[in-house]
Design a protein that fits this description.
The chain is α/β, with parallel strands linked by helices and 466 residues long. It is built from eight helices and 25 strands. It comes from Cucumis sativus.
């Protein structure tokens, strides 16, 4: 037992000795961290809550230290530096240092962090705060920063050019829900390592620079919710690694380039609510095999819905609302799109009957066909209508009607408010894939009418003959 206690004691002192050998954070970085914490939220006694002399031994959540070695073969670190800083509570499960309403920040502080790889601010600047990473003060981490994340800092007023003019090693640039303004600078293409650009919900204007096509590693490009105008560059079609392209809610005009068919890895495409012209639905949206969601709503592109959808069987959502579409809804959409869960075709000029094939879909849970010129009976069974409920939207089609059995569908359905089909108008197909498309009573009624027609025909032939 005495021998065991001796070894435990020896290991304990060895651990203490190893800890003592670890380098301490420089006083400049340490003081800058505490100054930054106090500026963001002065209600906490930060120097009391965390060790002043050795901050990296137990730093606040969101502050990450890394040890650096002078050479590959070194066993003892040469120095320690702050490499990540995250501020702002995202949820109850996040322990990041919270920001206050009157948070402030001095860009001079950033000159202390030469090894910073990630910086994150969430809802930290909501007062009259101006934050700039340049403004005459070059951030020390300009060449080391890999992730810049600024989310919902509504009072963050800074030009996009000054924000990104100095970073050359970025992989992720997420600046969303701020008051960042100006034109996207050409120099952003110098950050050749960029994999994500999300500049949504800001005040950006001007055109999208064609030089973005140089970002060969880019997987996400989200510029939605700004004031971008002009044409979209054809060269964006060269970003063959792109998984998500979102340019929605801007003022972009002209034609959607067919070069985008080269984006064969694209899974999400949203060009909705722009000013694209009357050139029809781009053909490439039915030719990108990995595409899962496509939204073009709010652009008066006109034309008809494509007939061929077999190459995009994995599509789960289609948003084609308010596009001036004409013609009929092709049944091929229901036949080939076996993963479709959302179909939005409202606010167009579509006509004809509803394809009954949609009623056999196991994945559809929302269909919006409001405000078109559709006619005839609703060809879906009561179980299908009950499953979708109020998400089956058919208002604004005055020539649509329902059978008696659909009038009683519950689950919030609007079918009970639609007009009842007249018996004499029931002339739809009775079978589809071996299933009845109307009630057995209607089938007998129609069969009786056919018998009467046949009998009259026979009598007419006899009269003519004799």
């Amino acid at each position: 037992m005495a021998l065991l206690l001796f070894f435990i004691t020896l290991l304990h002192f060895s651990s203490i000795s190893n800890q003592q050998q670890l380098p301490l954070l420089s006083s400049l970085e340490r003081d800058s961290v505490f100054t930054l914490l106090s500026a963001l939220n002065s209600t906490f006694p930060w120097r009391t809550l965390f060790p002043d002399h050795d901050l990296c031994s137990a730093p606040p959540h969101g502050i990450v230290c890394d040890y650096f070695y002078q050479s590959i073969n070194s066993t003892v670190p040469d120095s320690v530096h702050i490499t990540e800083m995250s501020f702002g509570v995202i949820s109850d499960y996040s322990a990041n240092p919270p920001c206050s309403f009157n948070s402030t920040i001095d860009p001079v502080l950033f000159s202390s962090f030469r090894y910073l790889r990630k910086i994150f601010f969430y809802k930290c600047f909501t007062g009259n705060v101006v934050l700039s990473f340049s403004g005459g003060v070059l951030p020390a981490f300009a060449s080391t920063l890999e992730e810049l994340v600024l989310v919902d800092n509504t009072a963050l007023v800074v030009s996009i050019e000054s924000l990104f003019g100095n970073f050359t090693n970025l992989r992720r640039a997420i600046v969303t829900g701020n008051s960042v303004y100006g034109q996207i600078p050409e120099c952003i293409s110098d950050s050749s390592e960029l994999e994500e650009i999300t500049f949504s919900r800001n005040r950006l204007g001007g055109q999208i620079p064609a030089s973005m096509s140089k970002l060969k590693k880019l997987k996400i490009l989200d510029l939605s919710g700004n004031f971008l105008d002009g044409f979209v560059p054809e060269s964006i079609g060269n970003l063959t690694e792109l998984l998500k392209l979102d340019l929605s809610f801007n003022r972009i005009s002209g034609r959607v380039p067919e070069s985008y068919r080269n984006l064969q890895k694209l899974e999400f495409l949203d060009l909705s609510f722009n000013r694209f012209g009357n050139f029809g639905i781009p053909k490439f949206v039915t030719e990108i095999p990995r595409l899962k969601e496509v939204y073009l709503s709010g652009n008066l592109v006109g034309g008809k819905i494509p007939e061929r959808w077999e190459k995009v069987e994995g599509l789960s959502a289609i948003g084609f609302s308010g596009m001036g579409l004409t013609g009929k809804i092709p049944p091929s959409m229901a036949v080939h799109l076996r993963s479709l869960s959302y179909l939005g075709l409202d606010g167009n000029k579509l006509e004809g009957r509803l394809p009954p094939e949609f009623g056999f879909s196991k994945t559809l849970n929302e269909i919006n066909l409001e405000n078109n010129n559709l006619s005839g009976r609703v060809p879906f069974c009561s179980n299908f209508c009950a499953k979708i409920g109020k998400k089956l939207r058919l208002k604004g089609n005055s020539d649509l009607c329902v059978d008696e059995e659909l009038k009683n569908v519950k689950n919030g359905s609007i079918l009970g408010n639609m007009k009842l089909c007249q018996q004499s108008n029931i002339s739809d197909q009775f079978f589809f894939n071996g299933s009845f498309s109307s009630s057995s009573h209607s089938l007998i009624f129609e069969f009786g009418k056919l018998q009467n027609v046949a009998l009259i025909g026979v009598l007419w032939i006899l009269l003519v003959k004799f």
